Amino acid sequence: MVMGNATLALILLALAACTEAPLADEPPAVSGRFTHPRFGWSIDVPARFRAFPIRVERVHQATGVLISNFEVEEPWSLAEFRDFPRDGAALRIWSNDRGPVAPISDDDSRLPLELSDLEETTRYVGMSEPRPFFGTVYGDGHPYAVATWFGPDASEDDRPAIESALRSVEFHPTHPNTVIDRRLIVLGPADDYPAGSVTRFDRDDLPLDGVFPDYEGKFTFYLVRGPSGFYAITTEFLGNGIKCDLQVLRQPYTYACPAEGWRWDRFGQVLESGAPWPDGTSDLLIMPTPRSWDGNLMLDPFGNAPEEADEAWG
Q: Which residues pair with 44 in a beta bridge?
């Protein structure tokens, strides 16, 4: 999915305009194909263009690459775009190095990425900067900001070169029973779970050993596939310990902890209350299970997104 959002564009472009210096080991500009050293995505660098890696040491570390047909001394900043060359063309892909904090629920974007999916938005630095085209893409569960700029005298070859570079973006392949960036658990191909299925997962079914050392408690959830999508339902987040032995009852479609007197509907909302839980919660947690670009389901064991259950049964 590629989404254009003018407000988000301004926020991300504002972060990009930071003029702080890069880390001491900043790699030089490259040609050929650029591969991100941490996230593993890659992109072709067209002939006559160069790739300038982006890494800034600050609270929200921006990381990515700027590809342009002109020299860029400070790729971590957009400040020099105030003097954007009239014949210039540039493509920038960047993200927060620390990853998302909110629940990860967006499916990965379909490949190849297309320039036509980006939307024209407001200039940030002004002066001679062209109006950028902006969008948000997702790869391996991670959001990336994408922006392109074309000067008024850019050559006829520059736009197709940028378009070709964008279409060349590849994300790192996902593999079942692995963990992505210490956050997303890859459950396996979405097609392995038919509509209407409810599949139980316990800690021993997951590749958690050595990945989440601070979360050692038991962990159980049910992967649900409704007519319109997936979600996972549980009593507690990863490693915090299960409150009870959650059971699924097919007729009617409910969840229950019989020994404790609790029962919930398919959306995780309370139907019958039992003895109060120590933390005061009552509804079950709904964990998102976005689909990777190559067809695998990815579980976010730290995100509560009740709307995912609504959408799955919508």
A: 33
**How would you class 45 by CB atoms within 10 Å of its CB: exposed for 0-12, middle for 13-18, buried for 19 or more?**
buried
For residue 149, the tally of other CB atoms under 10 A from its CB is 21
Beta strands, E only, 156-311: 179-180, 184-189, 198-202, 220-226, 229-234, 247-249, 254-257, 262-264, 270-272, 285-287, 296-299
Supply the pLDDT for residue 127. Answer: 77
User: What pTM did the predictor assign?
Assistant: 0.86
C-beta neighbour count of 112 within 10 angstroms: 12
pLDDT tens, residue by residue, 125-164? 887 899 999 999 999 999 999 999 999 999 999 999 999 9
Where do the H-state alpha helices sit in the chain?
Answer: 6-16, 158-167, 307-312
Which residue is it, tokens 């279409």? 167
User: What is the sign of the dihedral through the CA atoms of 269, 275, 278 and 280?
Assistant: positive
